[in-house]
Amino acid sequence: xxxxxxVEYRVVPVDRYIITRYASGANDTxxxxxxxxxxxxxxxxxxxxxLAKAEHDRLGWPAFDDRMQYPQHPRQxxxxxDGRVAEVAAACAGVPVIxxxx
Length: 102
Hints:
Largest sheet: 4 strands, mixed
Oligomer: single chain
Number of strands: 4
Structural class: alpha+beta
Strand order of the largest sheet: 3-2-1-4
Helix content: 25-40%
Number of domains: 1
Radius of gyration: 13 Å
Distance between the termini: 18 Å
């Protein structure tokens, strides 16, 4: 297994709330996987946050390390200034990304 360079958890609303885990590593490797599906945005957020926190602790990365992205509550939305939103969404949907910076 290659050493991770970044891990990002997101909560995505789709009739229900699906928790995804996106990770990128050495040699421009990246992947996305589902981690659960919930009826309630608050429950999905709490679970996603707990998963991210547990992995952050396991990896031993310092607090506020940019490599670990904690989820945002689905009601907050994703900031439009996040230039990687389309790239992450495409990776999680299995759609090829053109001009990827990964």
